[in-house]
Design a protein that fits this description.
Layout lengths: L17 H4 L5 H8 L5 H5 L13 H13 L5 H10 L1 H7 L9 H11 L4 H15 L32 H13 L10 H24 L7
Helix pairs in contact: 2-10, 4-10, 5-6, 8-10
C-alpha cells in the first residue's frame, strides 16, 4: 500500500542524545574504545599557558585530525564541514552544538605544535598500543623501495625489480582510504606531520577493528 508522509517531522521537538543516534558498530565507536586519547594531555601541557581564557581542548584538535586522515578527507576545511553535518563525528569529538573554525588547528599548529615532536609521539603511542595488544610482529620488516641487482658488465645492464606485495597494499590503502595520495601541505615538517598522522590513523583503525567487541545490550 502506498503511504505518504503527511506529517513534517523536521521541526518536531524530541528528547534525544547523540549517543542514541550513532550505530553501535560505527567505526568512530571502535576508535574511541581502542585507545584512551587522554595520553595527549601530558604531551602538550607545557605548550599551553596557565592563565588566559580557556582554549579548545587539545584532544579535540587531535581527534579532528584523526577524523580527517582515517576517513580520507582532503583538508581541514572540508573536515569541519563534515563534522558540522555528521552526527557520528560529533559524537567522537564530544560536540553537541558548536564546532571550531577550520583555521583553529592550523593556528595551533603554527603557534604550538610546529617545533615539537608531538605527532611522532602520537604515532609511537598508537604503535605501542598495537604491540601491547600482541598484534605486532617484529619477524618481518618491509621497506617501500625498488631493488636493482648489480651487473659488472657495463655493456649489458639488466634491471630486475622486486616488490613486496604487503607493503604495496599498505601504501595503496593509505593512498586510497587515508588521503596520502595528495597533499596540500608544504615543507618537510608539515609533510612529516601528515605521514605520521596518516599511519597513526591507519594503525588505529586496524587496532579498533581487531579488538572491537560488540556491546551486550542490557
Amino acid at each position: 500500500m502506498l503511504t505518504k508522509n503527511q506529517i513534517n517531522e523536521r521541526e518536531q521537538l524530541e528528547m534525544l542524545t547523540i549517543e542514541q543516534l550513532v550505530p553501535q558498530e560505527h567505526l568512530v565507536r571502535k576508535l574511541d574504545a581502542a585507545i584512551d586519547f587522554s595520553f595527549i594531555y601530558p604531551l602538550v601541557e607545557d605548550l599551553y599557558s596557565t592563565i588566559g581564557r580557556p582554549c579548545i581542548d587539545p584532544v579535540v584538535l587531535i581527534k579532528m585530525t584523526f577524523i580527517q586522515y582515517t576517513f580520507g578527507i582532503r583538508s581541514m576545511r572540508q573536515t569541519i564541514k563534515e563534522i558540522e553535518t555528521n552526527v557520528a563525528y560529533r559524537w567522537f569529538l564530544g560536540f553537541h552544538t558548536g564546532v571550531p573554525h577550520f583555521s583553529t588547528f592550523g593556528k595551533n599548529y603554527v603557534r604550538r605544535f610546529a617545533d615539537t615532536d608531538l605527532f611522532e609521539q602520537i604515532f609511537y603511542k598508537v604503535l605501542n598500543e598495537v604491540a601491547n595488544r600482541g598484534l605486532l610482529s617484529p619477524d618481518h620488516v618491509f621497506i617501500d623501495s625498488t631493488h636493482v641487482k648489480a651487473s659488472a658488465n657495463k655493456r649489458k645492464f639488466k634491471k630486475n625489480v622486486v616488490r613486496k606485495e604487503t607493503i604495496e597494499r599498505v601504501f595503496a590503502d593509505a593512498k586510497e582510504k587515508h588521503g596520502l595520495r595528495w597533499t596540500t601541505l608544504r615543507r618537510l615538517k608539515k609533510m612529516s606531520m601528515q605521514a605520521m598522522l596518516t599511519f597513526a590513523a591507519l594503525h588505529l583503525k586496524k587496532l579498533a577493528s581487531w579488538t572491537w567487541k560488540t556491546p551486550i545490550m542490557a
